[in-house]
User: Fold Tyrosine-type recombinase/integrase from Haloarcula terrestris.
Amino acid sequence: MTQSLEPIVPEEAVDQYLKSRSQDATESTIQNHRYRLKHFLKWCDHASIENLNELSGRDCENYKNWRIDQGEVADITLEQQLRTFRVFLRYCESIEAIETGISEKLIIPKVSKGEAVRDDAITHEEACAIRDHLRKYEYASKEHVIFSLLYHTGMRRGACVSLDVGDWYSDEEYIEVQHRPDASVSTPLKLKQEGERNLSILDAGLSEAIDDYLSHNRIPHTEPDGREPLFTTSNGRISGNALQSTIYKLTRPCYYRKDCPHNRDMEMCEATEAANYPSCPSSVSPHPIRRSAIMHHLNSDVSKSIASERMAVSVDTLEEHYDARSREEKRKARQSELSNL
Assistant:
């Protein structure tokens, strides 16, 4: 018996899927899924698919191959996009937009554990060089405190954006991370309430810098519901994009080392222009700073359970996506813990 399907154009199906996911996912997750599925919509235009009812298992394979042929797509990126696509297909099956079982026909290439651990990060030595440069030349600036806080705690970009002045407990030297999706300026955490935690600031110099930033350099701003953002610009609470641009700038080698490893003319280089920081091959976004912080914690013999709680990441995810230590580094870490037996 042929299944009765409700005709629907691909764009409408994606919109409905994203609206459905908004009930149980954060805005950043929705944005990620929107970005990943835009490639599918482009393929639909390419393949002249105007009614999703027509989609077949062979079409799914054709889309995957088309995506690979579009350019250099990292294996881990392709896997993520296809996994999101499969979730979307299952949603389409549930609303009778495609035949039941299509989602199970999608073959997703396996990515090895080694490939799944991304290598975009900075070394501990580079992080220290950036921090020392900021401490010497831009002490207690917003940039100094943001970078130092991200690397010291490994918090996500969204968590950093969400911080209020009242979240900093100077006497006890810890910062509180809270999920506030319903505030006048919504600042949800990726893991929602599960991402809430108190983070000890174990660097006395950073604690003092936070206090001095608040006393001398923070731009005053109060939101409609009375919240006072910790990190502000002339337009109010710092945005995720503005924070990302800041990290792009700070991680340019010419910014903190005054030399260029890419043999560029630093006075003429486009990467020194505010709008083009990402064009520097050595610049990284906030997430690699988080990855680097996690790696440093693990290399410093911090147990995975403690790192998991501090960074708000499961031990399984930590092992699969963040622990890039060699077998010898892991052996030395185990030896250190076992030395107390």
In short: Strands lie at 168-169, 174-177, 197-200, 232-233, 236-237. The longest helix spans residues 27-46. The chain has a mean pLDDT of 88. Residues 124-287 form a domain with the hpI Integrase; Chain A fold (CATH 1.10.443).
